[in-house]
Specification:
mainly alpha, about 85% helix
Length: about 130
């Protein structure tokens, strides 16, 4: 049974990751909720699965001419430094606290599109 759950999690993470939407945003909760992985383990699995997923998606986007190289170094260099620092920080946090922090992050992340849609509705109401 676990094989099928991992397989389905891979499909879900691959779908979002291939679109550049962050497959880990879905993959990490799936691994912790349905497969019982500790938060830190789920994050590590997500990072490891991200490497081949991003390589394939990057190849497709490159072939389709959807990559803008301007500013790429300015994006990559600080991202590398801060991903290393944040990985060290995450490794030092107990799993339950890390899980709560990730849950809070997901709540805040979901609040932005919700608030944006409310603002859009208000603008549309003023037009009439």
């Amino acid at each position: 049974m676990a094989f099928y759950l991992y397989f389905l999690c891979g499909i879900a993470g691959g779908l979002l990751g291939g679109m550049g939407m962050g497959g880990g945003t879905l993959l990490i909760p799936l691994l912790t909720l349905f497969l019982g992985a500790e938060q830190g383990v789920a994050q590590g699995l997500n990072l490891l699965s991200f490497l081949p997923m991003s390589a394939v998606a990057l190849g497709v986007h490159l072939r389709e001419g959807r990559l803008e190289k301007k500013g790429l170094v300015l994006l990559i260099l600080p991202a590398l430094v801060f991903s290393g620092l944040s990985a060290l920080f995450a490794a030092s946090i107990p799993s339950p606290l890390l899980r709560k922090g990730f849950g809070l992050f997901l709540l805040l992340l979901s609040a932005f599109p919700f608030a944006s849609s409310l603002r859009r509705e208000k603008r549309n109401e003023k037009k009439f």
